[in-house]
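Researcher: I'm preparing a figure for a lab meeting and need a structural model of a single chain. I don't have an experimental structure, so a prediction will have to do for now. The sequence is pasted below. Please return the structure as tokens so I can convert it later.
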Amino acid sequence: MKSKNKSLFYGIAGLLAVILVFFIIYGNQKDQSNYKTVETVNNIEGIKNGIHMNTGLVEAEGLPLVIAHCTGCHSGKLITQNRLSKDGWQETIRWMQKTQNLWDLGEDEKIIVDYLSKNYAPSAKGRREILKDIEWYSLEN
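Model: Understood. Here is the structure written out token by token.
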């Protein structure tokens, strides 16, 4: 009797393990047709001083598509910390498609690359920009 219970236990445990592995492998893949929803693309709230507060991305043409296609897999900070040329962003997209299961962006790709290359292009800035519009005052001894 104990032998039957052990076999049943191991059989159920094995089945659960197979189901778990299935969901780990296939559950992380996003369905392209359902991923980019109308609500995601058209409902951009939380813009303050030209920055989308949830992602940290610059408000500009193409932002809704970048949010829909990019920030579902990684943080907007990964975008803002990179500065790439148009070709660099294009190569990054190709790398993600080849190695990270990024889907074909179709017609949205040009808009996304234009947004990224305009707002997150390489810059020759130093550690910070020169302060502007500051009211200086004298310190008294």
